[in-house]
Amino acid sequence: MKLAFSILSHKEPDALFEKLLAYLNQFPDACIVVHHDYNKSSFSDELIAKYNLRMVTPYFNTRWGHVSKIPAIIGAFTKIKEVAPDFDWLISISPNCYPIKSVQEVLSFFENAKADYFMENLPLGLQYEGISKWHYQALFTKRIGKIPFLSKKGKFYWRHLRVPIDRNNTPFNDSMYPYCGSDWYFFNRKTVDRILSADIVNHPITKYIAKANEEPDMNASPDEILLQTFVRNQKDLVGSGNYYRYIDWENAKDWHPNTITLRHWDAIKQSDALFARKFDKDESSSVIKLIDEEILKNKAN
User: Fold this and answer.
1) Distance of alpha carbon 106 from alpha carbon 121, whole angstroms
2) HSE (side-chain half, CA atoms, 13 Å) at 262
3) Were 41 and a residue from 12, 15, 132, 153 both cysteine, which residue would form a disulfide, CB within 3.0 to 4.6 Å?
4) How far apart are alpha carbons 179 and 176 in whole angstroms?
5) Do the Cβ atoms of 276 and 100 come closer than 8 Å?
6) Dist CA 223 CA 74 (whole Å)
7) Whether the bond into 278 is cis, omega within 30 of 0
8) How far apart are CA 90 and CA 189, in angstroms?
9) What is the pLDDT along the chain (301 residues), one digit of tens a residue?
10) 287 touches 265 (CB < 8 A)
11) Is 132 exposed, middle or buried (0-12, 13-18, 19+ CB in 10 A)?
């Protein structure tokens, strides 16, 4: 079982990222591909050599929740195919992720996997709540003006007025129904090959989302829509909506999940997820120590 890990980073690597890399290197023949945005920070050559990292070149200037992430993602996929064409599974992961299952448990999961992909894929529509409704409004409505408004707390703001657009003027249809979800997923080689053969960077859906991506009041996150939509509509691929990540979104703010701390320990022990996020090298140090000792059985850490 050969696993390939796709990592996008923009901050200079810290101790937590190195701990993650040390864990990933325990997998037999692990392929670790990193797209690092050098416009944002540097990346240690020593770290690249120590963990045999395969860096995506050329790199792309990326922005959070922006279409500029798509070339970086596809660049990482392409690099994996180039340096490890015989990989079995691609795992997307970030420097702020950490394992909550042992290497053997992760290998066993993929050896017994019955699906071609494990990826959150939520249908878009105004009838839903949260991110699914937000993305639907970004893609299928247009702004026609704004009016002054008072929030329940008495705070003044401008409320934008939006009306539906003609769906026939979009690249979405019955054979390409829109979905969204987390950009943390597991893809087998068949799924990755399908994605790479579609020229996703220049795909009509990418170009359409890129235009919606520039809306000042309603920003669609392409990395949470594009692959989810494309992969979910491949009828011959067997998929699972469980992406096997433990993430705490309860009362989270600014579209970022809560930092994992000791208060999450019981939930982590009970979770069937393979990885968790979002960790911080300082705030999460105590719970990471417990994960190392009680789950990963790595007393040295």
Assistant:
1) 22
2) 6
3) 12
4) 9
5) yes
6) 11
7) yes
8) 7
9) 999 999 999 999 999 999 999 999 999 999 999 999 999 999 999 999 999 999 999 999 998 888 889 999 999 999 999 999 999 999 999 999 999 999 999 999 999 999 999 999 999 988 888 888 888 888 998 888 888 888 878 888 887 788 999 988 899 998 899 999 999 999 999 999 999 999 999 999 999 988 876 766 666 788 999 999 999 999 999 999 999 999 999 988 877 899 999 999 999 999 999 999 999 999 999 999 999 999 998 654 4
10) yes
11) buried
Give the pair of three-digit tokens for residue 87: 């990989």
Task: Evaluate whether 277 touches 268 at the Cβ level (below 8 Å).
Answer: no
Sole residue written with tokens 């249908």: 123
The first and second tokens of residue 225, run together, are 């829509």
Does pTM top 0.85 for this prediction?
Answer: yes
* Length in residues, the chain: 301
- In this structure, which amino acid lies at residue 14? D
For tokens 């003044």, name the residue: 156
- Cβ atoms within 10 A of the Cβ of 71, count? 21
